[in-house]
Structures are given as C-alpha cells and as structure tokens.
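I hope you will forgive my troubling you with a question about protein structure. Could you please explain, in whatever detail you think fit, how the structure tokens follow from the sequence? Thank you for your consideration; the sequence and its tokens are set out here.
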Amino acid sequence: MALVIDGQVCVMRLTLGALASLEAALDEPSLVALVERFEQRRFSSADVLALLRAGLRGGGADFAPARLDHAEIEGGPMAAARAAAELIARAFVAPGA
C-alpha cells in the first residue's frame, strides 16, 4: 500500500522484521497482542507513527524515520490512522484472499 507523505508517494508493507521491531517498540509480547491493540482501538498517535515507520522501513522507502514527526501526510491524521490500520490488517491476510 502507499501513503503520500510531503507530496511523495511512499510504499509501505510490514515484513516480519518490521513486525518484530514494531512489537518491541510498542512493548507488546506477541503479534496477537499487537493486532488486538489496534482492533480494540487502544492505540495512540505515537503507535500510529511507529506503525507507519515500520511500514516505510518494510516497504524500502528512502525516508528518515524522524522526518515523519513533522511530515505532511495527505489526508491528515485520520488518513495516517487508517493507513496504519490497513497496514496491520494486510499483514495478516493470506495471499490471494
């Protein structure tokens, strides 16, 4: 999936490595706990930023992680939260489903 950040289209995906770093960054004990956190809407804006950073890293985007703190995301904070939710949902969908 892609998100427009500062006018640049950035491809995002959650690789296993990106998920592992996200799990650690958000202090969750497992992938299931991480997914439940988002499904139950117990996430903060910092969680959204961490998820977007992981997705950018997994997607191979040439984007400095700290830059995201001050970036303009097309669609604003709600679009960022939707993108984060979609990223995590896509990470657990079987290919071709």
Notes: The CA atoms of residues 52 and 84 lie 6 Å apart. The helical segments are 16-25, 31-39, 45-58, 76-91. The radius of gyration is 12 Å. The chain has a mean pLDDT of 87.
